[in-house]
Amino acid sequence: MFFALTDDQQAFATTVREFLADRFDLDAVRGVVEDPHGDGHPVGLWKGLADQGALAVLVPEEHDGLGLGLLDAQVVARELGRGVAPGPWTATVLAAEALRLAGSPEQQAVWLPGLAAGDTIGTVALRGEAGTWDGRGITVDASGERLSGTASPVDYPSVAGLIVVAATDPSGSPGLFLVESGASGLVIRDQETYDGTARVGAVELADTPAEPLGGGTLSGADAVAALMARGAVLTAADLVGVAREALTRTVDYDRERKQFGVPVGSFQAIKHTMADLHVAVTMAEHAVLFAAHAVDTQDPGVDVAVAVAKAKAADAAWATTGAMIQFFGGIGFTWEHEAHFFYKRARRRAPLFGSADEHRARLAALTID
Amino acid sequence: MFFALTDDQQAFATTVREFLADRFDLDAVRGVVEDPHGDGHPVGLWKGLADQGALAVLVPEEHDGLGLGLLDAQVVARELGRGVAPGPWTATVLAAEALRLAGSPEQQAVWLPGLAAGDTIGTVALRGEAGTWDGRGITVDASGERLSGTASPVDYPSVAGLIVVAATDPSGSPGLFLVESGASGLVIRDQETYDGTARVGAVELADTPAEPLGGGTLSGADAVAALMARGAVLTAADLVGVAREALTRTVDYDRERKQFGVPVGSFQAIKHTMADLHVAVTMAEHAVLFAAHAVDTQDPGVDVAVAVAKAKAADAAWATTGAMIQFFGGIGFTWEHEAHFFYKRARRRAPLFGSADEHRARLAALTID
Amino acid sequence: MDLSYTAEEEQFREELRTWLAANIPDEWTQPGFWRALDDDESFRLRRDWEASKTAAGFSGIEWPTEYGGRGGTPGMKAIYDEEMVRARAPQTVNVLGLTFLAPTIMAIGTPEQKAEIIGPMLRNEVIWCQGFSEPGAGSDLAAVATRGVRDGDDYVVNGQKIWTTNAVHGDKIFTIVRTEPGSERHKGLSMMLIDMDQPGVEARPLKQMSGASEFGEVFFTDARVPAKDCLGEIGAGWRTAMLLLSFERGASGVGQYTEFRRQYDEIVAEARRFGRSDDPVARQRLANCLVELECLRYHAMHILTQVEQGRDLGSESSMTKLQWSETFQDLWEAFDDVLGPEASLARPRPDVDLTPFQHQAMWSRSVTIWGGSSQVQRNIVAERVLGLPR
Amino acid sequence: MDLSYTAEEEQFREELRTWLAANIPDEWTQPGFWRALDDDESFRLRRDWEASKTAAGFSGIEWPTEYGGRGGTPGMKAIYDEEMVRARAPQTVNVLGLTFLAPTIMAIGTPEQKAEIIGPMLRNEVIWCQGFSEPGAGSDLAAVATRGVRDGDDYVVNGQKIWTTNAVHGDKIFTIVRTEPGSERHKGLSMMLIDMDQPGVEARPLKQMSGASEFGEVFFTDARVPAKDCLGEIGAGWRTAMLLLSFERGASGVGQYTEFRRQYDEIVAEARRFGRSDDPVARQRLANCLVELECLRYHAMHILTQVEQGRDLGSESSMTKLQWSETFQDLWEAFDDVLGPEASLARPRPDVDLTPFQHQAMWSRSVTIWGGSSQVQRNIVAERVLGLPR
């Protein structure tokens, strides 16, 4: 029994964390947040992540990747969440996963090395406005190798060279397609979001040429579901990182900040809230580890594990970042303070790849019906 | 603007409260709880309530009643809840309400004086096993003046001389019927409940003769709905009484009980829980007053008011009685202590006439659709 | 129970409603109108409009006529609050002066203060700010560090205030200053009425997490205030502050309910627009907000009754604060929760602007902090209402 | 991550499973079997059955063989816990002795204590009770009032213990006694091992709100205990108690999860039976219990890993207690909530007996109180794990 990260995985986490601390700290994050019309994709950060192999984690070695698992990838996601780091990391990793799982050897050879090296930015467009995250929310139609419809919100579509789009064919079957930037009929409509640590947009397709992903291990609905599951786990990992860092910062602050002549952290109302949040965040951390491992090992309980992880991580991040603002007192409500980076990132990401409610509904379907 | 009980109503509350304190205190309640095979209907308590007019509140003066409103009746319900008093008060009052609202003058003349005086015990059977509380949960069928089917759980059917049964005719329309004790085909199956402050049973009907209620102000589905609303308000009032008394007793105990050399009530975790519960119970008290008044005045917002009151009262009673056990420490978990009277009464009654969830669903239908 | 207003009160409602209908330009009630204006312009419009409302006799509703008020009943004040929300009238600009300072001056002000302050405030000729919180004195107001040193007939004031509403538009500020050197906690404080239009006073907007600036900071650097411009006695500032804060206990819950209920309906409309209103779980979430909102309404009627009967509300105001602030925050949590991924987009559709919703949702995080945090209010309820030991 | 057990551990699972299958009578696993027995009969059956299990080598799994244990790994202990639940084996009768007393004796007992206590306990020849809580010393264990006065080679003990599991079936009790007259709080306490079969010791069952009596009270009236029957040094009882309680930090979470998950499935089955399993709101409620249950399972694997690596779990056990107790309580709240009016009836249908469910639901109210209340655990997590000031 070994339920923990290996020394290598811990070292990987430390590397990413130290890189962010040294080269992309909260001041750098603020720079991106305060430039809402910029592309939100700092090149130095991107190159640094690429240099560490953070983009190559899941890519097979034959395509210049590290050939590691989702458990390793979630290490990166968690650190990026902890550092509220901007950029299309999750989007690019998921695009590469789509190719790895559903692409032909040729498609993989064309795209994966570039994605692994950070030369190509990818993203995924799996759901349309107000849609669910289970394939029923797809709002793009495929007619042969042409796509029409709008997917939204999509992470970083403006900087992406490759967009993996989920679309349904006339018979209603879903599948994944590759759309390249600049394709005819493709319009990226930037969508302003309050989460300044990301950039999102709508991907509008009008009879746009697209290449079906095919010839890989998975296809059709299975491929879409597998991609959704990976998106859920990586988002959960990001949220867990956000939650842990928000909690740590709040505890550190309340240990020192005095009101009524004593540290506010000595008040039991605050202590008990922090204790409950610590338990919740710790459980969410466990859940993300287990889910990532379950995906990697194709555990028969993988569907339950993914839903548990996403539901728990979303709830923990939501609660922790709300408490952060409350328990920093007024200062945590100001623009100048960093609390809102965590709060807004948690709020925006919590519902991505299925809200806590959606994942609980899925758990009910898996264990009640 | 006068949002409060009148002096008369407050005096009425005091009378009932003092009667219970003098003549039916928690030791007397314990006697009923510890005699689970007894009928749970102490005659002295019943006569005392009748003497105070507690059974006659809603009965028109022409039928020997006081001709008052639901706002006055909820005064009694709240005090009975506060005293965790046993007996078929709510059941009898609701049976009388059925006659008042839906009965003909003749039916009223036959039954109301006896119900008002406490000579006749009544009850209502409005719902069957696992059914909802909105008319769709009726599981008794009417064929002319014959009823068949089973209603459950019904309050105090074994001691009731008159049972008001909701039944649907072959066309699916609901209506109210009078069934007398001893009617052919009528079987009362006692159902053991953990709430020792009540007795309940299943009312089994097999081609049982019944008299349709008719000729009153309301009929059919409207009559059933009006009776459900009154049941919801009176149950909410009982729950609010339970909640308030549970909270008061817990606060009083924690003000004195010492651990770690100080009163446990000086710990902020307990203080804040008590403060939140006090707010919740106070809001529930307001909500019950408003709902009762809305029924009395046929306020256009009465449906919202009743649903709010029942949802809020159920939640407040549930939370308060759970906290009572926690914050009395171990002693509140023992049989010898009174906490479980409150806890069990709250648990059993919370879902009657619609759970908090059901009433929230109703509010959604009223304000979202 | 009698939940009606008197005929006289309803008559007042009619008059007010008529005046509001005639005096609020249609465009003002359109979504986005106020946000499109720059801050100074918006303030000026509201300031002037309210002055005309005062001239028409619709300000200081429950104040004695001797102070320029209408001499109305608490019920009329509740009606006023409700109708202002219903008519989507602009936000009151002199709100802290009107709510807190004016009644305190009526109670303990000098004849000169009564004569010189209340009228100009009511006519919006002087905009008042409140200077209570400091960076190191939030929930713990007694930790005030701003100090005033006697110099001839004046005090010379140095220090910083924060969370000051309308800081950059203010003309004067009522503020707690430590005037007794070396004093601690509640002692040695004075409530000074300081002219903000002097070199020693600088006001800066404070940008919030939403990007808006409802609040500001006020810096005192050798600011001067005549000793006579102290409200209450010198050194009795804590008592003055407590009296002042006691006037929060008004009947504004009726207006608050009206506003929050409209927000509920607006959130429901967005849920419907984005196909979320049929989801039973989302419906529970929203309906539970409605439960708490309706309770807030009943509570407002209860409070109004208490006020009409001349009862001292005492610590009950802490209960009111908890109920409205937690309910309001939960309502806006429901917005984020129910709308899902669309909630974080300014324009999930090109024709839908959710920015005002997002601002409210973020604003809702502040209401459980200012005016006595929820933690402070729970302490008060536990200790003063329930009698649990300190 | 490697969530598998070793081949040796899996081999152990097979052996245990085989033995359990052969040695648990079918009728024992039927609903209602144990409740139908009277208390003494039930205890005797379980006592004897477990003695035979010990004889077969399936007790003291992770204990050294020198103490009659199996010398197994922490993983085997986890497997044991899991398989016992799966097989619906009877509840361990000597649970407090085996969990707490035995490892403490192995650590600090005298050679005589090691020789005389552990073997008979393992074979159920001596049933041990724990005497820690008192009516005035619940969460605050240091408030112990039971006193022991030296009299020759003995101590004479007077006082009362409460919440004693198996009180009426116990042969001996390890109990905290104040042996230094006039001492306060943590000082002057001793952990005495007292023979319950003497005139000075009386045990009474304590009836709980459910009507069951899992606990009892133990009264000492001039009870005698030889001074040599002190565990640890005289006067060092607090240290002994803390060491003893530290052994709660085992890997039992795996078994706990298995049991609670079965309860979840049973509750779901009742929800289905009463037509409540299609309700989306009820489904959310249940699914959220599942989320917490699964987290408990992951946490158990995390703890097992820590134990295998020889790490000191320290205050992490408070987190474990919070997660399992709050989750368990919430699960049974869900039972009441989801089943509605039927939940409070013993037999909502003549053929359905919900009494065992109701007992569990009420039992669930106690788990956040005993063994350190949730409030105490949150203090520990906040102060010792997060480092917030006392």
From TrEMBL, chains A, B:
Main EC class the enzyme belongs to: oxidoreductase
InterPro entries: Acyl-CoA_Oxase/DH_mid-dom_sf, AcylCo_DH-like_C, AcylCo_DH/oxidase_C, AcylCoA_DH/ox_N, AcylCoA_DH/ox_N_sf, AcylCoA_DH/oxidase_NM_dom_sf
UniProt keyword list: FAD, Flavoprotein, Oxidoreductase
Keyword Nucleotide-binding: no
Residues covered by the Acyl-CoA dehydrogenase/oxidase N-terminal domain: 6-119
Domain Acyl-CoA dehydrogenase/oxidase C-terminal: 220-364
GO molecular function, one term: oxidoreductase activity
Enzyme Commission number, as recorded: 1.-.-.-
Recorded family membership: Belongs to the acyl-CoA dehydrogenase family.
Protein name: Acyl-CoA dehydrogenase family protein
Automatic annotation (TrEMBL), chains C, D:
UniProt keyword terms in alphabetical order: FAD, Flavoprotein, Oxidoreductase
The family this protein is said to belong to: Belongs to the acyl-CoA dehydrogenase family.
All residue ranges annotated as the Acyl-CoA oxidase/dehydrogenase middle domain in the record: 129-222
Acyl-CoA dehydrogenase/oxidase C-terminal domain mapped to chain residues: 235-386
Needed cofactors: FAD
Entries under InterPro entries matching the protein: Acyl-CoA_Oxase/DH_mid-dom, Acyl-CoA_Oxase/DH_mid-dom_sf, AcylCo_DH-like_C, AcylCo_DH/oxidase_C, AcylCoA_DH/ox_N, AcylCoA_DH/ox_N_sf, AcylCoA_DH/oxidase_NM_dom_sf, Mycobact_Acyl-CoA_DH
Domain annotation Acyl-CoA dehydrogenase/oxidase N-terminal: ranges: 6-125
Pfam family, one: Acyl-CoA_dh_N
Name of this protein: Acyl-CoA dehydrogenase family protein
